[in-house]
Amino acid sequence: MLAQASPWYVHALQRTTANPAEPLSVPARMEWTTRPGSGPGAEILGPDLHRKRLLELGCGPGHNAAHLATRYGAQVTGVDLAGLQVRRARSHYGRLNNLTFVAGHALHYLQASDEHFDAIYSVFGAIGLVAPELLLPAIAQHLKPGCALTFSVPHPQRGGLRPNTDDRPRRDYVTLPDRTRLPIARWDFDAARWEKHLDRASLWLTSAQEFHDARHGLWPTTLLITARKL
Ligand SMILES: C[S@@+](CC[C@H](N)C(=O)[O-])C[C@H]1O[C@@H](n2cnc3c(N)ncnc32)[C@H](O)[C@@H]1O
After folding, report:
1. How far is the C-alpha of 99 from the C-alpha of 61, rounded, in Å?
2. Is any atom of ligand 1 closer than 6 Å to the C-beta of 62?
3. What single DSSP character describes residue 130?
4. Which of 4, 26, 35, 145 is a Cys-bridge partner for 70, taking CB atoms 3.0 to 4.6 Å apart?
């Protein structure tokens, strides 16, 4: 039965079984990479986030959204495909102001929304897991002009992999808390291919940074991209 469920559902289910969903204190910084405490924080989303409307695509348990709502006073919406993750996020941070968690597919959420955001972001979330030719134009439609899209994805050369040589997704795996792996499709692009797709959606790539994590060997683990709506 579980083998037919979404890998993200099984992931959320195992997390919920392993760790109680209880109120948590708000993290002191925003994390974009696999190595907590390294890399930039929330400042790369924009110079002044106070009262700004932010959207996170694939928010998981909501740590980054909680940080942005509390430390910056931003109005944050976190969307996640897995209803159980949204429940977790609400148990952890539902008491906070300026923070809304919604269950749904990132693309469907954008298609149904008429809101415009000051920044949209994803941390190993929906970007890279949904066809970029659909998701990036939908994101662009909901960003105010000049505003930022920022996302981190697993680096396409992690563990010695080669980046995609075409625009199709390839097989990747979600590693579950019990260490089993379930297959998913991932658009595993390098910065140049992301730039091409961003460009088609009228989003201008402003930076691409890679990060390492000594626990994962010599290869980079994280690709962090920033772009701006033209
Ligand atoms: C690796 S987790 C990262 C969670 C969180 N951003 C973090 O850094 O802890 C990926 C998350 O993306 C969510 N996700 C996957 N596909 C999605 C989609 N199409 N729309 C929205 N969320 C999605 C999954 O349910 C999962 O919670």
Report:
1. 13
2. no
3. B
4. 26
Identify the residue whose C-alpha is closest to ligand 1 atom 16.
126
Phi-psi region of 179 (alpha: psi -120 to 50; beta: other; left: phi over 0): left
Question: Using a 6 Å cutoff on CB, does residue 79 contact ligand 1?
Answer: yes
Q: How do the pLDDT tens digits run along the chain, 230 residues long?
A: 445 678 999 999 999 888 888 999 999 999 999 999 999 999 999 999 999 999 999 999 999 999 999 999 999 999 999 999 999 999 999 999 999 999 999 999 999 999 999 999 999 999 999 999 999 999 999 999 999 999 999 999 999 999 889 999 999 999 999 999 999 999 999 999 999 999 999 999 999 999 999 898 999 999 999 999 99
Please say whether the beta carbons of 71 and 50 come within 8 A: no
Q: Is the CB of 191 under 6 A from ligand 1?
A: no
Q: Is residue 60 within 6 Å of ligand 1 at its C-beta?
A: yes
For residue 82 and ligand 1, the question of a CB distance below 6 A is answered with: yes
B/e letters for 104-142, b = 16+ CB within 10 Å, e = fewer, are ebbbebbeebeeebbbbbbbbbbbbbbebeebbebbbeb
**Which CA distances in Å does 17 have to 12, 59, 82?**
9, 19, 15
DSSP conformation letters of 173-209: EEEPTTS-EEEEEE----HHHHHHHHHHTTEEEEEEE
Minimum-distance ligand 1 atom for the alpha carbon of 79? 21
Domains, the chain, with CATH or none: 131-230 (3.40.50.150)
